[in-house]
Amino acid sequence: MAQRSSGIRGARVGSGPLGEPERGDLAPRTRVSFWCGKGHHSQLSFAIEAEIPHSWDCPKCGLPAGRDRDDAPVAEGHAPYMTHMGYVRQRRSQEEGEILLNEALARLRGTI
Q: Is 84 annotated as a binding residue?
């Protein structure tokens, strides 16, 4: 069986040494701490020139996290999960639902 020969044998696109001379120097960084309402602590790295946000989503629980440990931001209220029937009941009363159901059944039975 013939073997293939390649000039870049054993190499992949993007492979090679990944030292700073090839990529360039990293921007100077600063570490910032954030705390969520559940007490989770996360440290993020930002470029020194970047504007540091006042809040950040906690990577552990998803709640908003702030830079002050004692005054964590409060999550905005979310609507509870509702089924399709829950949304229907918001729009119609029980009596209106009964009327619509009886009309639909009458149409199916052919009495209307």
A: no
Q: With b meaning 16 or more CB within 10 Å and e meaning fewer, what string describes 29-62?
A: eeeeebbbeeeeeeeeeeeeeeeeeeebebeeee
Q: How many CB atoms lie within 10 A of CB 72?
A: 21
DSSP-assigned states of every residue in 56-93: EE-TTT--EEES-TTSPPPPPP-PPP--HHHHHHHHS-
Neighbours of 65 (CB within 10 A): 24
CA 7 to chain centre: 44
Tokens (6 digits) for 20:
């700073």
61 is in an annotated binding site: yes
Nearest by Cα to 67 from 88, 49, 43: 43
pTM greater than 0.90: no
Note the pLDDT tens digit of each residue in 63-107: 899 999 898 888 887 777 788 888 888 899 999 989 999 999 999
What per-residue confidence (pLDDT) applies to 51? 94
